[in-house]
Write a structure and sequence with these properties.
Largest sheet: 5 strands, mixed
Distance between the termini: 36 Å
Helix content: 40-55%
CATH class: Alpha Beta
CATH topology: Glutaredoxin
Number of strands: 5
CATH architecture: 3-Layer(aba) Sandwich
CATH superfamily: Glutaredoxin
Order of helices and strands: HEEHEHHHHHHEEH
Strand order of the largest sheet: 1-3-2-4-5
Shape: globular
Radius of gyration: 19 Å
Length: about 260
């Protein structure tokens, strides 16, 4: 077995192990929420007043969407030509270590396929780590990425965020000034409009709506990656490689 093959196998195993950890945390988070609901019901039965708030805000209030993004029930940002014959659907969280592993390992292949018109990638943002670990880094980073979309620099800033991702338990991305500092790595991104967008949380509602779609979609964890509807990182995710993904896209496109 060559060194390259061993390295690829090790990387796939790490990605699968990290996704398994995220699934376990998600299950614990759901169990905690169920327990909280039970406590609330018992409190109401005892005559205790319970006040509840929705993270989604007023449902009648229109949700702001960045330029070129798609709203609706499954908000997303598309990278690549919308006319591309194949579509990669990605659900991810900027604080998610497994998402970083996927983006780092597959980045050059995705860029190549996007740039030559073979593939479009629809990015959906989730708040899984904020929910499991606490904090606001997933939300604030997601909003900042959408602010970058307004400037036509979503992909560049998206890659910067994953390259500089802090440790899972460090909620560094809650610091909006730090997010702006990282934006300095993308030429021309840091403007007054971008700063205001980040500090104001202009697209928080868009990110939260996307997360609601993630929750109701029955997904097992982040990243969830589907090529033309086929789950690439499910039970067989450990066998997926950038080369295999590229070949799958090219083979699918020949049939269209």
């Amino acid at each position: 077995m060559s060194q390259k093959t061993r390295a690829e196998g090790s990387a796939r195993e790490r990605l699968q192990a990290q996704r398994d950890k995220e699934k376990a945390r998600a299950r614990r988070g759901r169990q905690a929420k169920v327990a909280a609901v039970v406590v609330a019901v018992l409190a109401v039965a005892a005559g205790i007043a319970i006040w509840a708030t929705s993270t989604g805000g007023d449902k009648s209030t229109p949700i702001a969407a960045p330029k070129g993004a798609t709203g609706g029930d499954k908000p997303m940002v598309t990278v690549g030509r919308k006319s591309a014959p194949s579509t990669l659907q990605v659900w991810e969280d900027f604080r998610c270590p497994a998402c970083k592993q996927f983006e780092t390992g597959f980045r050059s292949t995705l860029h190549e396929l996007q740039d030559n018109g073979q593939l479009r990638t629809d990015y959906h943002l989730a708040l899984l780590i904020d929910g499991n670990m606490g904090g606001k880094g997933s939300l604030n980073a997601g909003n900042a990425a959408l602010c970058a979309q307004d400037a036509g620099k979503f992909r560049d800033y998206h890659d910067v965020l994953f390259t500089n991702q802090p440790g899972e338990q460090q909620d560094r991305y809650k610091d909006k000034n730090y997010l702006i500092e990282l934006a300095g790595k993308v030429p021309g991104l840091v403007t007054e409009d971008f700063r205001s967008c980040v500090h104001d949380g202009k697209y928080n509602g868009f990110v939260q709506k996307s997360h609601e779609a993630f929750q109701s979609g029955g997904f097992q964890g982040t990243p969830t990656v589907k090529l033309n509807g086929k789950d690439l990182l499910g039970d067989q995710g450990a066998h997926m490689t950038p080369q295999k993904l590229k070949q799958m896209v090219l083979d699918a496109n020949k049939k269209k």
